[in-house]
């Protein structure tokens, strides 16, 4: 028999079924949202890759590997360091700008990331393509020579360079990298011409200098063991204050050049990362930065913490981008050959 749709019980039952189905449909997106929230809350659930855009064995690589080990203990997942040397340190930025914003692909952001977009078309926009997680430190940079080099001081080298334009060579981590750009600015202030030789990382620069392939090494704390053992000597440091470790080495200001260059760096991921994942990463890296093991490595390379949280690092990135644009114009720099 065909049910009588005019009976109240049947109508009420149909209405309840319809309302139930509608409610289930409305709640489905909420269920997906809850799942996504739960997933973000459990981050990370797999290893995190952290790209170091320099060769293995240098100061940056050593520092970041120590930092990664400390952060991994907090995160409960490995932090895998991957070296991508070359291109003045921007290969990590190239990778991360195209990565999924899930927090599992990060990179060290060196200063050239803010400079190269003013010189050439790049695969990233430093103001739009990254989520800045944490700022870490800056380098003790300077110029070193072999112990048997003919110059006993920075001034000796400068006087020789004036007598022999273009004959004294130096190594840096790449054309238009901070080491190269700073040396170009110094050379212009002094009216000298040096021969630039680019390398992929600090360890390669030191090896080339000690082997006699280049005359000078623009380097960070990685040269320290060779200075301490008497195989090399600092000619000048680019720090604002005298080094604690090498207190007798003059700074640029000591030799009459009002400049400081420490090439600060931090860690960033792709844009649009979940804020909760960013916070988890930030907290893990900050804890690792303050860990005694990390502090010992910083002391070994004569570096100090320059911590900034995610918001302050993003503001710093914008300021750095603007200042590097002015530097490019002032020096009349051109793109990589």
From N to C, what is the helix and strand string? Answer: HEHEHEHEEHEHEHEHEEHHEH
> Fraction of residues in helices?
40-55%
Oligomer: single chain
Low-confidence stretches: 18-40
- What is the strand tally? 11
Name the overall outline: globular
Structural class: alpha/beta
Strand content: 15-25%
Largest sheet: 6 strands, mixed
Whole-number count of domains: 2
Count of DSSP H/I helices: 11
What's the mean pLDDT score?
90
Determine Rg (CA atoms, Å): 27 Å
CATH homologous superfamily designation of the largest domain: Bordetella uptake gene, domain 1
CATH architecture of the largest domain: 3-Layer(aba) Sandwich
CATH class value of the largest domain: Alpha Beta
CATH topology tier name of the largest domain = D-Maltodextrin-Binding Protein, domain 2
Question: Strands of the biggest beta sheet: in what spatial order?
Answer: 2-1-3-10-4-11
What is the first-to-last residue Cα distance?
A: 88 Å
What are its keywords?
alpha/beta, D-Maltodextrin-Binding Protein, domain 2, six-stranded mixed sheet, 11 helices, 11 strands, 17% strand, globular, Bug_dom1, Tripartite tricarboxylate transporter substrate binding protein, BUG
């Amino acid at each position: 028999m065909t049910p009588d749709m005019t009976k109240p019980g049947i109508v009420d039952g149909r209405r309840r079924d319809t309302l139930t189905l509608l409610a289930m449909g409305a709640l489905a997106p909420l269920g997906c949202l809850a799942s996504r929230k739960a997933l973000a809350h459990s981050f990370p659930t797999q290893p995190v890759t952290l790209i170091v855009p320099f060769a293995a064995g240098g100061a940056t690589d050593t520092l970041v590997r120590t930092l990664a080990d400390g952060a991994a203990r907090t995160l409960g997942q490995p932090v895998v360091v991957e070296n991508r040397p070359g291109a003045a340190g921007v290969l990590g930025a190239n990778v991360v700008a195209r990565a999924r914003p899930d927090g599992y692909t990060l990179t060290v952001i060196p200063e050239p990331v803010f400079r190269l977009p003013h010189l050439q078309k790049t695969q990233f926009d430093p103001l739009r393509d990254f989520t800045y997680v944490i700022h870490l430190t800056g380098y003790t940079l300077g110029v070193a020579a072999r112990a048997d080099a003919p110059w006993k001081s920075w001034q000796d080298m400068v006087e020789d360079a004036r007598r022999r334009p273009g004959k004294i060579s130096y190594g840096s981590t790449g054309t238009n990298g901070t080491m190269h750009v700073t040396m170009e600015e110094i050379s212009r202030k002094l009216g000298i011409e040096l021969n630039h030789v680019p390398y992929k990382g600090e360890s390669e620069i030191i090896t080339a200098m000690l082997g006699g392939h280049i005359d000078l090494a623009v380097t960070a704390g990685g040269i320290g063991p060779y200075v301490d053992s008497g195989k090399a000597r600092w000619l000048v440091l680019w720090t604002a204050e005298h080094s604690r470790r090498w207190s007798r080495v003059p700074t640029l200001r000591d030799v009459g050049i009002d400049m400081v260059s420490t090439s600060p760096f931090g860690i960033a991921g792709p844009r649009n990362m979940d804020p909760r994942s960013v916070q988890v990463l930030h907290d893990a890296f900050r804890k690792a930065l303050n860990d005694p093991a990390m502090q010992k490595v910083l002391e070994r390379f004569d570096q100090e913490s320059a911590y900034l949280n995610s918001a302050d690092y993003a503001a710093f990135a914008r300021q750095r981008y603007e200042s590097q644009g002015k530097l490019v114009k002032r020096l009349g720099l051109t793109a990589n050959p």
